[in-house]
Amino acid sequence: MVDFEGLVTLDHVSVIPTKVLFPGTSITDHILASYITKKLQEIKPDIIHTIDTAILPATIMANKKLCLPCVVTNHANVFDCPKKLTSMRERLNNFRVNARNKTYLMCLKNVDAVISVSDYIKKELIFAGVESSKIQTIYNIPSDKVINTVAISDEPKSAIMLFALGRMIKEKGFDVILKAMKLITEKECSIKLVIAGNGPEMPKLKKLVKALGLESFVLFTGWLSRNEVISFYAESDIVLLPSVFPDANPLVSFEAMSFGKPVVASNTGGIPEAVVDGVSGFLVPSGNADAVAEAVLRLVRDRCLRERMGQAGREILEKRFIREEIVRQTVKLYEEVIRACAQRSARRVPSGQFGSYLGVPTSGMKTANGVP
User: Fold this and answer.
1) 132 by DSSP, 3-state: which?
2) All residues at 6 or more sequence positions from 311 whose CB lies less than 8 Å from its CB, including other chains
3) Within a 13 Å sphere around the CA of 349, how many CA atoms are in the beta-carbon half?
């Protein structure tokens, strides 16, 4: 068993005035680095594990003098997102995101190990130039608290509930399931779609619901507490995951499986590593509303199929994504990184242009990770 009393989390950092400074810039990196350095000096950890890619540059800056082993978990695709940019604000944001992604990818060359949450992301990182030897796939799974915490009502329901959740952004493809709902409700009227979450696309999605005449079929809940999310999972019949941009390996698929719910998801990114097409759900072409509607209708009309796929998903989760094994893999990686760093050379090398900004070497490195 792992001694979780030895795990220290810095939690959310509120030292940046976000109304004045935009997060993810060199200024905010330096502010965060100062805070992290102070905390690390107090805690004196054996290893740093950064689980938020946005904080990695500041972490490397903070670690310059401490020389601690560093591991980072890559949760998302960090490559340019090709999309239609319709406003100056979107163009500026896209430029900022892409610039930040390049900074992050350069930072990856200065850590000891990278945990990828899917083989899909691992391949993408290798393609981007990150050494394959330092990348290990360790899947994300839902907390124990998610599973079997809510009693599901045995009372017959008046409608089949479809459930989707996430940030309301274009990449999540919520407009696709709304268009699919139009097709579904033309053939089945006992359907209810619940969409949970907030985001910049919310006004457009609500307008689309009105334009499609779906007001009586679609409910937007807005932001939900964790307990409320769990309740919706428990009461849902089918979970939808309509991403149009490759997701690394969204927790939604694992959470749906943990509740024994069939999933209709886009066949993109790391999603197929969790959802087995025709077994625990249906994988459909990304952005294809017709395919989503067809898959949902098959499940709506066949209760036995829903139950069979839901049970298969739960069994897959319990057999392939074992919580204890994932913890063991993570701890083993910590031990390997700490051991390798203890053996590395203490000599320094001149830093390159990027290293001058972050304060770390980026060329000629012969050590295990590149952090001096």
Assistant:
1) helix
2) 260
3) 15
Amino acid identity of residue 45, one-letter, is: P
Based on the domain organization, do 301 and 338 belong to the same domain? no
Q: How many other C-beta atoms are found inside a 10 Å radius of the C-beta of residue 261?
A: 25
Report whether 327 contacts 2 (CB < 8 A).
yes
CA gap 327, 333 in Å, rounded = 10
Model-level pTM? 0.80
What pLDDT, in 10s, does the model give residues 36-91? 888 888 888 889 998 877 788 888 888 887 888 999 998 876 665 555 556 666 66
Instruction: Identify whether 368 is part of a domain.
Output: no
pLDDT (average), residues 283-294: 97
Confidence of residue 263 (pLDDT cuts 50, 70, 90): very high
For CA atoms 295, 296, 299, 300, give the dihedral sign.
Answer: negative
- Chain mean position to CA 125: 15
For residues 16 and 70, state if they share a domain.
yes
Tell me the per-residue pLDDT of 185-222, one tens digit each, with 9 for 90 and over: 999 989 999 999 999 999 999 999 999 999 999 999 99
State the burial class of residue 77 (Cβ atoms within 10 Å of its Cβ: 0-12, 13-18, 19+).
buried
Asked, for residue 213, whether it belongs to a domain, the answer is yes
Residue 97 structural domain: 4-139+323-358
Query: At 25, is the secondary structure helix, strand, or coil?
Result: coil
Q: How many Å apart are CA 325 and CA 90, to the nearest integer?
A: 42
Task: Establish if 343 belongs to a structural domain.
Answer: yes
Task: Please give the tally of structural domains in the chain.
Answer: 2
Confidence of residue 349 (pLDDT cuts 50, 70, 90): very low
* Within-domain flag for 366: no
Q: Which range, of 14-28, 282-296, 339-353, averages the lowest pLDDT?
A: 14-28
Q: Are residues 167 and 305 in the same domain?
A: yes
Picking from 273, 355, 287, 358, the residue whose alpha carbon sits closest to that of residue 317 is 273
What confidence category does residue 354 fall into, taking pLDDT thresholds of 50, 70 and 90?
A: very low
CATH number of the domain bearing residue 18: 3.40.50.2000
Coil, helix or strand at residue 74: strand
Give the per-residue pLDDT at 17: 42
* Together in a domain, 297 and 150: yes
The verdict on 235 and 274 lying in the same domain is: yes
